[in-house]
User: What shape does this take?
Amino acid sequence: MLALGAAPLALAGCMGAGAPIPSASTPITQTEAQQGAQYHPQFLAQFGGAMSGPQAAYVEQVGKNIAVQSGLGNARESFTVSLLNSPVHNAFAVPGGYIYTTRQLVTLMNNEAELAAVLGHEVGHVAARHSQRRQQAAQRNSIFGLLGAIGSSILLGDSGFGDMLSRGFLQGSQLLTLSFSRSQELEADDLGIQYLSRAGYDRRAMGTVLASLAAQNSLDARLQGRNASVPEWASTHPDPASRVQGALAKAGAATGGVTNRDTFLTRIDGLLYGDDPKQGLIDGSRFIHPELRLSFTAPQGFYMVNSPSAVSVNGQGGQAQLTLAAYNGNLETYVREQFTALGGQNRSLAPQRLQRTTINGLPAAYGEARVNNGQSQVDVIVFAYEFARDRAYHFIAIAPAGRAGVFNPMFQSMQRISANEAGAVVPKRLQVVTVARGDTVSSLARRMAYPNAQEERFRVLNALGSRDQLVPGQRVKLVVRAR
Assistant: This one.
């Protein structure tokens, strides 16, 4: 979270309109490889960086093996497979053979076939040159139009200011890639299933991993009090719930393909789960960053999404984002600079009032502006805090006119934390255990490192239905506090 200099990316191919689209069997070209290499380091920075070690090596091995099934002549050598240190459930692909999955999505999987299915889906996007096709459409539409309406663009309308603020919230929510069309997503599902079959995996893995993703999204939405219609696998993937039955139908009856469940569980045991303390942690309604030594609390009814460059705060009553910018030691200048940046080149934006204050011992300043988007008015607030002579952080918040007060408790909650409090922050990790005689779903779920919904979380994590029970010798996953 809060890495200075991260920039939004339009992760699509750069082929000009009218350029021929290679067939799926055409090897990755030098031009495509150069395109991917250009975006790759920026993408890693935005999504927490690439992990290393045996778990990352395992993901890379499975990814390259499934890429070979695509028929691309140089697949094993040309594909770059990265395990991202990100706490969101997501997977991506960019031209040139770069495919990614987050560690959080891997923890939701229950066997190697499901890992191969997700990576095979992304290989399918690369092999079918979907990004290049969408880039041609993008030349006729802005990236924000392709991504569709999300909170800030809904509130602000189609304006330069709206685009600028949308860009910030897109970054905070990790919605940074061009969306594929529904037909392209279904084609990637089909290709992924074909690759599973060729590699000898259980073809039904595409449907089962989508089912787990849909169940996780539904649980997260209910716990956060939001609508479940937009999954976290959202920027590049439509609602997984709508694709489960289609994927299972295309896979057909069980074919005897392998799942490699035990191997998979052994290899992912101990994987970091949820937020990395180095990027800050969301603990219920509180965000705490032990390295930056700060914390704040989101308003009631709002939920947070953490990324390396920002923390977004989302709810029915508006949106906010905590981030940072270059600071010269003057808070008033800093606040004005953020308004100028929000306005962009086509719109002058300045606070209608600017005030100094102190929040929990921190020097602070805030400004507010009312913006007319043509249909309604919204209030925009920049609230900045000085943590050192050369370091400041700020919230950008938007809400319908007259309703920005919903964020006041959050603004007032920002505080510096002590070294002892920072040292007490402990991450969560995945622990694979073997079910013993007498163990039940209820008894094992009580070991989950959460204060609420323990059994529901346990069942979703292990793809267990509401009536499924455990048997001795079965291996299952827990989320526990790292020691």
